[in-house]
Each structure stands twice: as structure tokens, then as C-alpha cells.
Amino acid sequence: MGDVVNGKLTIGRWGRRLLMGVSVLALGQTALIARAEDGPAAGGPTAQAGAVYVFDIATKPLPRALADFSAVTGLQVLYSGSAAYSHTAPALQGSYGARQALGLLLAGSGLAARFTSPTSITLEAIKDAEDALVVDPIAVEGALLRGGLPGTEGTGSYATGATNTATKLTLSPRETPQSVSIMTRQRMDDQNLNEMADVLDETVGMTFKEGGPIGSDANAVYSRGFEVHNFQVNGVSRSTKYGFGDDLSDMAIYDRVEVVRGATGLMSGVGDPSASVNLVRKRPTDTFQSAAELQAGSWNRYRAEGDVASPLIESGRLRGRLVAAYQQGESYIDRLETSKKVLYGVIEADLTEDTLLTAGVQYQHHRSDHASRAGIPMFYSDGGRTDFSRSTSSAADWAYFDNTQLTTFAALEQRFDNDWTVTLDLEHARRSYDALIGYGIRGTPDRETGAGMGLYAGRWAAKPIQNSVGLTATGPITLFGRQHDLMAGFSTYHASYEDPSYPLWSIPGYDTSIGNYYTWNGAIAEPVLEENGSESFLERQVAGYMATRLRPTDDLSIILGGRLTSWSQETESRYADGSSSYSEQSENGKVTPYAGIVYDLSDIWSVYASYTSIFKPQSLQDADGGYLQPLVGDAYEAGIKAAFYDGRLNASLAVFRINQDNLGVADGAALTPSGGQAYKAAKGTTSQGIELELTGEVLPGWQVGGGYAHASPTDVKGKRLLTDIPRDTVKVFSTYRLPGAFDRLMIGGNLRWQGAIYANNVGPNGERATQKAFSVVDVLASYRLTEAVTATLNVNNIFDEKYYSSIGAIGYYGEPRNAMLSVKASF
């Protein structure tokens, strides 16, 4: 697909084809999504404002949809001109207020609604950009603008109109001078993406390296050639230390997942130049809604999910939402069993017309039993490649991974008459992980007898706690007669744990040998693992940040910002013999600058460029036990973006270059004093590449999300790094709802392709492990049984492609062909 030739990036045949595809799809007219106006349009007559109606309107031309709307509500809708006749309204099923229903039908039409009497509404064309807001269509319901950005839930779209993850300034994707991917609620539902890993695996430019079952520490996500450690929830950053993140999160409680690729130091302070992942929680709704879903699939997998939201008092000033999910199942891997429980509750209270209080709690417990921490050996003892069944397990029958998350949060938002908003976020997150480890990958098996293998055994457990506080103010400012945007904020977090330690890998007196690996079924004596010391960890970060978007002209935006960060980390290990070790790292007053520029070529197209610096302290150790110096460097990005069809279809093309020092690379077979993998710092590493993405509605009823990404990290001599991560990936997911009498049926498909990968010197005689390029195809069919009940069948890896999702001395197979049937009822 793409390559680096003589220092220059070429996108190759497939890249050119995808670019051509974007050009072909870049046809159509643009409009602006109407914002609910002040006065009658925003408030409406009292009778209509409080009423809730049940709608059953299929996708159809807007005039016919408006006729159905009038038949249900008794409201007369008046309009003239051609705008209404050229727009196809989306399907609308369920209970809504009149204004909310009308807003959904008008989304993308270029029309605004105005109540001209208690029983009549007039549609008017939007004549000025100041009368419109490029946001999610559901934002027509003015009350739903409370609490920040509008959600993607209920829009039926794979695209959204606004994001603030990159800078905390509310910008459309086209206005954001970085690559942004947003996985909406609709796409997660259609594609049956219930796990965080599933979402990231389907996101353009992200590579999910699966090396073990969910819940283990064997999995990693990469972007632009580097591992992703930066996770946020509603903009609140997590410590990048193992155990503090939300990488195991279930998707039931989230409205969307926003991924900003590249360095995000402005918001995260310390972090990799790979990407930042922000999970945005679901919120209560102004009207009652509920849904229940049951799933059953391959390997005895079952899932049940319930979701109810409603005003809690008649005035609607107090609203609540409750989400619960439970799943259990086996796996294509022998003996592996998993279970998960999820519970989420949140309330919103309008303390005044301009003051919003939000408070909630989320809980998740995930357990994997008979679980390995890796896959299976890729080599025999003579250096030949193995060919095990995908069901082969290397887990001891007593091994498990147990993870619990409990988070309580609150937010207070104050809006002012000058359009400024100040938000205070508080969060207390408690995590617990306990892993009893036993997996048979020590050594290489004899080709004939299966002898020569042993067990790695041990235990680790901790209860991390993080307390976070954030204060942000955003609003407009006026300079030189023009309006600009300003954001300023403060954040701090305190992350810690103090827990016992246990024997790991080397256990005196314990026999780790496995007689015949080919017939082994996980039966082996469980080791006695008593506490042999303890470890304490403490991390603090305090930061202030500011960003502004200056608008010298209508077509030009300049975004400037910076972050001032102070960070410290302390680790102390105490051993059974009374000895101890202590390490401390700190950085005070570290400045992270940010700059971006966006120029609108037209109402559709814009070009952009951005720069930010990189800074990340590291917990990786060298062979002497010392910590590597912090990652430092610079990240550059430039590209072109487009918003077609009123923002319902977004396209972007980005090129990037990352310069970095002190990247931690594995130091061969060297180990740290504690027995872990030793690393060395690589100087002068770079990564450059290209990303292309297309997301949204191509034609009425036809949605697409996906693209192409190329990233090539190299060392100072130009030698490729991270060869076990593909340089080229293609991901395309698309659905189509049939028109007319067949509109109850939706069909879809998904393609994931990745280039070849390899790992050198991993066999017993220095052999190379390889995985050739491969593709995986998924399909789905969804049928609306009634207006409230929909059945969906997802079939993954329909051609049963056999491939390794990670390689090395040990390889881990990807999932074989499997299916999941879902039945969802909405009320």
C-alpha cells in the first residue's frame, strides 16, 4: 500500500484508489444543521412543550414525513420553496416531544422551525451561518445542549458534528487541526462492538495487538507506530501506569468514543505521540426512553442489557438514567471462560436555568477463568514452525484474571449570559486487579514428543485509586472587532496503590515442567504463593492549560495553546528479607506548546496543519534497573478535510511526521533485576505516514465508516522499528437500509486488511516469525420485526481466515468464524 522510498512517503496503488474513491463521493450540496432559535421555536407553546408522542415514521421524503408528523401531533407545518422537497427525512420511531421529533426530521435539511401560533409551525431556510450550529442533529432540542456537546445516540449516524477532545474547544471535525475518529453509538450498535478492544480494533489508524484474553496485560493498541496509553473518560485523564486505565471498559454506558491521533500533550500533559482515547458517557434524556437487548452467539456466549432514562419529576428539572449489562461465555480457546457485570447510574439536576449538576457511579467486574497470559509457541525446538489448532490453550486450569472498576463522579456546569461556561469535574476511581498466572510457554516443544515445555507461574494484585479534579472555562472573546474563542483550565490527579507482592516466575521448590505439551489439558499443581513483600506507588500531576482560536478572517482559524505541567512519581518495593528499593522521578514546570491552523477553501473543504511537542516520563527499566529518560520530541501533521451533505459525511486526508528520542525498545533477551523485560532508549526515532478516513452517510440509507492508514517508525539509521506491527491497514464498515417497502431490512459488511508483519531472532536458533498480509470479512443483517423490536445477525470472519493477531516466540490466533444474534426492543 504505502512505503518510504529515499526518505519520501508513497501511498501506492491502494492509497491512490482510496483517494479516488473520496473524490468520487465528494459530490453533493452542503447545508447547515439548524439550531433551535430563541423565543417560540425554542420554547414553543406550553401544551406542546410538555406533550410526548409516539412516532412510527419510515425514511421518506421530508414532505411525506411532515404529513405523518402533523397527523400524530395535530400541529400544522407550513413551508414553501424546494428545500423541503429535496431532503429525505430519517426514520423516526419511539416517543419524543414535538420539538425533538421535528428537529430529528429536519436535521440536515437547511431549514429552521418557528412556532407561528399555538398549533402551527413555519419552516424557513437558514440564510446566515450565525443562525446555524454545526452540531449533532439532536441538538435542535435546546434542552439537550445542557452538559456540553450533544450526544450521538438517537441520530442514526456514523458521523457527528462536534468534538472537544483535542483542545477542549468545541469544534467540528473539519475545524480541528488533527486527525479525529468518532465511533458513534449507532455504529457500535450496528457492528456489535461491546468491548473497548473491539472499538479500537475497528478505528482507522489504530492497531489492536491481541496477545491474550481480555483482562490480561498481554494486549496493546498502537497508533502511528507507537503504543497508546492515554485514556480519558468525559475528558478526565487517567494515569498511564498499568491498572489505572479504562481499556477494559464495556461500551453499554457510553454514547461515543473519540480518538485523536497524534500527540495530545495539550490535554494529557504527559503521553505518547500515538493517540488519545476519550470515552463519553451516556446522559439522561428529557423524555422517557428505554431499551432491552438479548444476545446469543458462538461458543455459548450470552449477553443481556437494559437501559432506561427519564425525567424524575414532572417539570423535567431532575433526570436520571440507569444502564445494566451482564454477559458470560466460553471461547474458541479451550477451557477459557469469561463473565462480566456492568452497572451505571447518573442523574442531572437543573439547579437554575443556567446551572447543571451531574452525579453518577459506574461499576464493572470482569473475570477470565482458565486463562493464559499469551498464546502458543510458534517454533519447535528444531526451529521449525508449529501449526497448532486455534483452540489450543496454554493456560493452567487454575489460572484467572479478575478486574473490578468502581468510579464515582460529579460535575457542576455554570453558564453565563455572555456565552461563557465554567465546568468543575470531580472523580474518584477505584480499580482492583488480581491475576493468578499460569501459562505454559516456557521453552519450545520437541516436534515428536511434545517435551521441553514448562510453566510460567506467579501472582500480581493491586487496588489502584485515582482522585481527579478539573476546572475549565470556555467562551467567546472579541478582539479587533471579531469574535474568537478562548479556553483555560486547571487539572490535577493523585494516583496511588500500596499492595502486597507475591512470587513471580521463579518459585522455589515448584515443578513447572509439562510432560507432553500436545496432550496437556492445563492440569498441573497450583503453586503456593504467599506474600513476599509489598510495593507502593504514588503519582501526582498538576497542570494549567490554555488555548485560543483566533479568527483573523471568516476563512482562517489559528489555534494557539500551551500546558504547564508538574509531575512526580515514587515507587518503593519492600522484600521479605527486610531490604527495599526506592525510585523517584519528577518534572516541574514542563511546558507543552500547541499550534494549529485551519483555512477554509470553500464551504466544504479546508486545509490544516498542526504542531505539538512530546513529553512522557517512562516506567520502563534497563538491564541495571534504572528508568529510561523521558520521551521527548515533536509531532507535525498536515492535511485536508471535507464535510459533505450538511456534515453528514466527513472525509479527511492527513500526513504526519513524529521525531522522538528515548523510545523504549526491547533489549533482546536481557532482563531487569526483578525479572521483567529490559529496555534500551533509542535515539533519533521517527515515524511518518498517511491516514485517509471517510465517515457518515454517502446516500440516504447508506452509511460508511473507515479508511486507510500507513505508519513507518524507524531508528536513526532508517531501520524499521516495531516490525510486529503492520505499517498498512485498511478498515471499511458499511450498512445500507433498503428503500421503500423493504425498509425494515438493513444489510452491512466489514473489511479489515493489514500488511505483513515479522519479528526477528525469536526462534530457538534466531529464526524469524512472520504473518503474511491478510483480510477478515464480517457481514450483518438487521430486520425490524415491529416498530419497537429489531433482530440483528452479525457473522464475523465469514471466510474463516486463520491468522496470528500477534507474533514472536509466542503467537496468538485471531478469532475464527463466529456469529451473534441480537434482539433489541425499544420503548
TrEMBL record:
Keywords: Cell outer membrane, Ion transport, Iron, Iron transport, Membrane, Receptor, Signal, TonB box, Transmembrane, Transmembrane beta strand, Transport
GO annotations of cellular component type: cell outer membrane
Secretin/TonB short N-terminal domain ranges (all copies): 75-126
GO molecular function: siderophore uptake transmembrane transporter activity; signaling receptor activity
An example Gene Ontology biological process: siderophore transport
NCBIfam families recorded: TonB-siderophor
Family: Belongs to the TonB-dependent receptor family.
Name of the molecule in the record: TonB-dependent siderophore receptor
Organism: Rhodospirillum rubrum (strain ATCC 11170 / ATH 1.1.1 / DSM 467 / LMG 4362 / NCIMB 8255 / S1)
